[in-house]
Every structure is written in C-alpha cells, then in structure tokens.
Design brief:
39% helix, six-stranded parallel β-sheet, alpha/beta, four-stranded antiparallel β-sheet, elongated, 345 residues
Length: 345
C-alpha cells in the first residue's frame, strides 16, 4: 500500500509531565491517491489531527505523524485505510474520514487492515458493502457494520437507535441494491403520518400532496441511490411505492423489500398489521428511535412492544445503534448523548 513506514518513541516532559510519544513516517506509492486522501488544502489531514490529537506533516507523498503513542498509531492505520479506499475508487470526504476513525476508535478497522478478518457475525469486512447505481456504500461505524450484515442475512431486521445513525439510509440502499440485481421485484417504503408534536391543520391538495411531506426523507434517500430519471420511472410504474402506513392494511407483500420508517410512532395494532403483511421472497426492515415517540401521551409505541415480544424469534435480527454510531455532524452525536433516553416525556 505504501512504500515505507518507520517510527521512533521517546519520553517528553511538557509542563513537567512525562508522556510517551511516537513519530511515524508513511510514504505512499501513488502521489495522486495520496493527494486524494489528504484532501483539498489538506482538510482531511486537519480532521484527523483534530480527532486524534496528533500532528501530521506532509511533504509530497510522505506524511510524518507525531503524537501520543496510541493516537499516532491509530492515525497511521486511518491513513492506510483511507488509501485503500481511494485505491478502490471510493470518495474520500469528511464522512469517510470520520467513519474510518470511528471504526478504528472502536478497535474495528475496515478494509486496509482487515480485508479478510472475520467479524462476529461471520462476514468478511470487505463484503460489507452495498452497491447502488449512484454509489458504493460501506459501513461507517461498528453498529452500521452489524446492521449491514443483518440486512444481508435476515428476512426481517429491526434497526433501533438515535437519529443520524443511518438506519433508514442503509435500508433504502440495500433495497435498491436487491432490486437492481433482480432479487426482488419492487420496493415499498412506508411510515406513519404522525406530526412531530405539531398541529399542521388541513393540508391542501390531493392525497399524494397531503402525505408526501411525511415521506420526504424516504424520497431523499432514493434520489441519493439512483439517477433522478430512474426514480421517477420506478415511482410511475409502481416498482417503487412510497405510502403511509395506513395504506398497508389488507395487503400481502410478496417479492418485495418493505421498509417501515419512524416505527416508534406506530401503535401496537399498527405494528402487528404491518409485520403480518410479510409475503414470499420478501424482506422487511423496521427503523425507529424509541426516544422520539410522537404518539398521544399514554399510547404505547408499537416498536417498543414488538421488540419485547419478538425477542429470539427465528429469522428476525435486531441491531441497536448507540450514540457512537451517529454519522451526521459530530454535534448531533453530542446532542443525542446529552438527551440520553429522555425523549421529552
């Protein structure tokens, strides 16, 4: 991957305190790829410096890493992993940098260090990728890695956890991947039309105009996975259907990938109704955040109820995301952490 790597360790005593430090030097074989991982105006290097409390000095295709032993060695592994991703043609943006750091901080490096390493779920990390028309998507946190593996292996998956962890985004990506590969015939995306603590009154327009605002996040994910003209074509033909939960009653959904978003806002009866729509050659993903329930006070969330009664049922997998899995802006993770399990109730 890179031509040379060397290191030295020495004790230093800033402000009278002893501290072990490392100085590592990396030299990358491909100058073009090195420039990609460094980022415009070295912004990716600056991001690594801030997150890992190290100093990175680059000259051409060489990088000197200075800092505490643990931080310096992790920075080296992060740079190595980013280089490997760049070799495979992946975009190296701020999200990719944060994702590789996040995996490394949890002792769970991605492709560069452990392409053939086997995870507890039996998957090789190199296999944990989702290919759509617009992009190849790889997990950016340990929780996402577990989730993607479950999406690959199970017919019904619950993704439960705070906002910003990629629950819906990865589910839509997997649905699109399975459809374009011919494994399923259609995608059905649904969510309950529950207002988030607001009263919007009567909305203008026909039924589609009234429900579309509630379903906008699902459309946004679709347009990220497929060219816009293809999304419009699939929606017009019914191969992709976006509908409120109430429209699922009485249907049997065969040869489909079905996603229920914002599942914490279902009642117990709605959740039972949805889960029993399952048909032959189908996959279901239920996404929700139990800390953001918008149901009337005193109404039990169908998501919480289903998680209680479906424990251990064969064929069902549950991924529980944590604040460490938040892949939006770092501030989102700090906000989620500050709120904890207090959903405002």
């Amino acid at each position: 991957m890179y031509a040379k790597s060397s290191s030295t360790s020495a004790p230093v005593t800033p402000s009278g305190k002893s501290k072990d430090t490392d100085r590592l030097v990396m030299e990358f074989e491909d100058n073009r790829l090195a420039a990609i991982i460094f980022g415009q105006h070295d912004q990716n290097l600056a991001r690594i410096e801030e997150r890992l409390d190290v100093v990175l000095i680059n000259r051409g295709n060489r990088v000197a890493i200075e800092g505490g032993i643990e931080g310096a060695r992790l920075a080296k592994r992060v740079l190595s992993d980013l280089y490997d991703l760049a070799q495979k043609g992946h975009e190296i943006d701020a999200g990719a940098v944060d994702g590789v750091i996040r995996m490394g901080e949890n002792g769970d490096m991605t492709t560069a260090q452990t392409n053939q390493a086997t995870m507890p779920n039996g998957k090789n990390k190199a296999d944990l990728k989702i290919t759509t028309r617009n992009r190849v998507i790889m997990p950016r946190s340990p929780g996402q890695a577990d989730y993607v593996a479950n999406l690959m292996d199970h017919e019904m998956v619950f993704g439960v956890g705070p906002a910003g962890t990629g629950k819906t985004y990865l589910a839509v990506a997997m649905a699109v991947s399975r459809m374009i590969s011919g494994e399923i015939d259609r995608i059905i995306l649904s969510r309950p039309a529950v207002e988030a603590g607001e009263n919007l009154g009567f909305l203008p327009g026909d039924m589609k105009d009234k429900v579309d605002p509630y379903l906008r996040p699902l459309y946004d994910a679709l347009y990220d996975m497929l060219p816009a003209e293809q999304v419009e074509k699939y929606l017009a033909s019914g191969q992709i259907e976006v509908a409120p939960l109430a429209f699922m009653r009485g249907r049997t959904l065969a040869n489909s990938f079905v996603i229920l978003d914002e599942a914490q806002n279902t009642t117990m009866m709605q959740m039972k109704m949805f889960l029993t729509r399952f048909g032959d050659n189908s996959h279901m993903v239920i996404c929700g955040d139990p800390s953001q329930v918008d149901l009337p006070r005193g109404t039990r969330s169908g998501l919480r109820h289903s998680l209680d009664i479906l424990q251990g049922v064969e064929g069902i997998a549950v991924t529980r995301f944590h604040v460490q899995d938040v892949v939006r802006h770092a501030l989102v993770g700090r906000i989620v952490d500050a709120y904890g399990d207090d959903g405002g109730r």
